[in-house]
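Suppose you are handed a protein chain with no further information: no name, no annotation, nothing but its sequence. What can you learn? This example shows the usual starting point.
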Amino acid sequence: MSYEHILIDVVDGVGTITLNRPDKLNSFAGRMRQEIADAVAELSEHQGARVMVITGAGRGFCTGADVRYLKELSDADDMEGLTALVEAGREVVTQIRTAPKPVIASVNGPAAGGGANLALACDIRIASDRASIGQTFVRIGLHPDWGGTYFLPRLVGPAVAAELFFTGDMIPAAEAHRLGIFNRVVPHEQLAEETSQLSATLAAKPPLALQLSKQAINRSLASSLEQMLDFELEAQIKCAQSEDGREGLAAFVEKRPPRFGSD
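A reasonable first move is to predict its three-dimensional structure. Written in structure tokens, the prediction is:
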């Protein structure tokens, strides 16, 4: 599949999606939202990609919507066009959360508005010390979308989320790390290498176990303990019956590194 506003490649088990409008800090334009959703769907099915990374070209991760285009929609009272944009964001977030593989956001610079929530939709966020992130919607009189009202309160709690939504402030990487928004913050020059190392670590893990663990994390947000115990039992049986499960147990007993395949 060819794309206009993103780059996609697969190397050593890692599929990378690079937002590619560096002159505009990778703000969304045209079919870019749909392209991201399509790329995530493509890599979800790609046998050679066991982990996904989403990052930005140039000095920005993603600064969200093209505000000039939003103004055009507002001036024309084109709510159908605005709805289409929000729905496209919904599709991206849904594709990421339901992808059967880990998705890492490698946040190389500012992540604002929908760009911030694109990062929040990912399973893990590793950031440059030059990065920043913010729920900037209120600055232009709009409401958060791209799942921000779901992800952020669960990461930082409702009171901190309220402050971030209400002020629209961009916060630096170190503060985002302290709040639990970023998993890791590394020197900017080391971001690509740190992302590569983390991706390689995950790509070497058993795919089925990662897939089911991701499902469990997402289910746990709206499930009871009893429901999660039931899911754990079902998932454990699936893993134990898989080739990777048998390989992992055998390798442990035989005191050798496991050689996981792709169930």
